[in-house]
Automatic annotation (TrEMBL):
Stretches assigned to the FIST domain: 24-218
Residue intervals of the FIST C-domain domain: 219-357
PANTHER family assigned to the protein according to its UniProt record, in alphabetical order: BLR0328 PROTEIN
Pfam families the UniProt entry points to: FIST, FIST_C
Domain of life, per lineage: Bacteria
Name the record gives this protein: Histidine kinase
Entries under SMART domains matching the protein: FIST, FIST_C
Length: 377
């Protein structure tokens, strides 16, 4: 595996690493601030850098490159597999009336299943129900194929997210990178580091990812009561206080971030499903707890590997970044300490993370986690 990396900072200064590495038609992961991706300049520059490259763009809530976390810039990682192959397909949820299951189903139908080893998905983060996207994908994929990835971000603005493959990034896109090859070793993990507090409540009315009532009371009213003065800062304030959701059908609770609120219906829109009957508690975190969570994720990802990772893709939640503020790089440093300095590190801060739980294959949508996908060949 041959890798080149580089970045563009807020001052519009490029930094290119490993320029001596010659690549033919690499997979190029481009994580960038949404405002940058709206500029034609970015697409033309990346195409000039990699004339034959397969360019995958994703808007972020922060970019990860090596041990650095940046805002307002761009980070790229170009990967040329030497013993493996990849294929990229895309679908737009806006062509399917924002139906996430249908979008995932059609996207998965485009993928060649023969000898498929892994699927890495980068999805827009504005319209998607991440839980339903996974349902659609896994209804078509072979059981043994795991899915990891993340939902695009837009800092803490929640205005719009952009994604694209070999074209200027746009709203609604969902991109799947299918990896093939017997020599590939891929491991993955996720961990949060948040803790629950306050009384446990039951979801008594919900539809998909829209939460209406807790204990037969308007969910948004209850949430605002807990937030107090911070309620005026919704939906951004919700990133500091996600929900732990434990449904009867799931062995593990999942964390759900509130992406938006609906004052008219007194409801909250979350990144993934919140089934009726689920038990819910508020969550919060400390910086040390989040950093420890990243450490645990890294330990789990390397635990059963036979070879050292050559590439590590980190997808962490925007809520974690807001809590850590100027200390965001600490969680990345913890990951590098465990994964090893031989691995090229890339990734982004997201509106949702896709990964199975430890020792499982079925994917889940997570919020407020650090998710790792480690690759070698």
């Amino acid at each position: 595996m041959k890798i080149r990396q580089g970045s563009l900072n807020e001052a519009r200064i490029w930094k290119h690493l490993n320029e001596e590495v010659k690549l033919d038609a690499p997979l190029v992961l481009i994580f960038a601030n949404r405002h940058l991706l709206e500029e034609d300049y970015i697409f033309s520059t990346m195409r000039h850098l990699f004339p034959n490259g397969h360019l995958v763009y994703a808007s972020t809530s922060g970019e990860i490159l090596g041990d650095q976390v940046s805002d307002g810039g761009l980070a790229y990682t170009a990967i040329e597999f030497e013993n493996s192959t990849f294929k990229i397909v895309s679908e737009n949820i806006l062509n399917h009336e924002k139906n996430s299951i249908e979008t995932g189903n059609i996207l998965a139908q485009k993928i060649d299943k023969a000898n498929l080893k892994h699927l890495f998905v980068i999805a827009e983060g504005s319209y998607i129900n991440g839980s339903d996207l996974i349902k659609g994908l896994e209804s078509v994929l072979p059981d043994e194929v795991a899915v990891t990835g993340g939902l695009c971000g837009d800092d803490a603005r929640f205005e719009k997210t952009l994604c694209g493959y070999n074209s200027k990034a746009k709203a609604g896109e969902v991109i799947a990178i299918a990896l093939y090859g017997e020599s590939l070793e891929i491991s993955f993990s996720n961990y949060g580091g948040w803790f629950a507090f306050g009384p446990e409540r039951t979801i008594t009315k919900s539809t998909g990812n829209i939460l209406y009532e807790l204990d037969d009371k308007p969910a948004l009213d209850l949430y605002k009561t807990y937030l107090g003065d911070k309620a005026a800062e919704l939906p951004q304030a919700a990133l500091f206080y996600p929900l732990s959701v434990h449904s009867a059908e799931k062995e593990h609770p999942v964390v759900r971030t509130i992406l938006n609120i609906d004052e008219t219906d007194n409801a909250m829109i979350l990144a993934g499903d919140v089934p009726e009957g689920s038990r819910v508690k508020l969550m919060m975190a400390t910086v040390d707890g989040i950093v420890d969570g990243a450490l645990e994720a890294a330990k789990a990802a390397v635990a059963k590997r036979e070879s050292a990772a050559q590439l590590a893709i980190l997808v962490s939640c925007v809520g974690r970044k807001l809590v850590m503020d100027q200390r965001s790089e600490e969680e990345v440093e913890e990951v590098i300490e465990i994964v090893g300095s031989q691995a090229a590190i890339t990734g982004f801060y997201s509106y949702g993370e896709l990964s199975p739980f430890a020792n499982e294959r079925s994917c889940e949508l997570h919020n407020q986690t650090m998710t790792l996908t480690l690759i070698s060949e």
